[in-house]
Design goal:
single chain, Sufe protein. Chain: A, 4-stranded mixed β-sheet, 4 helices, globular
Length: 151
Amino acid sequence: MDDLRELYQTMILDHHKRPRNYGPLPEADHEADGHNPLCGDKLHVALQLSDDGVIEDVRFEGQGCAISRASASLMTEAVKGRPEAEARKLFERFHAMVTSPKSEPADTSELGKLAVFAGVREFPARVKCATLAWHTLTAALEGGGRTVKTE
């Protein structure tokens, strides 16, 4: 188990230090901002949807803790190229995993690399860091450019 935990920590640190899909997306047609006042994380998620609802491109910008930035990075990798409905279902599975009781095994099925966040559920304050990018993505998909907060 320690080897697995170390692998997860390594992946989270890698995505924090070298986030994927980081930067502006000038051709974005959906955007939203997210803020976690408890931790100070601030993210901007921008995406471009095709006419048939596929997330053609997604990027994020902002500052935050390692969990927040890594989650945003891995989220963008996971949802790029997926239909909007699949991205929403992936968020539901991710959210269920990180909020499940730590006394039960985490359901990481169909989450791929996102399973690295299963350990976050042991630290309730960090769940908000891990889900901020996802809530911000959802707000962007809904439109209106609103700001979501985890408080």
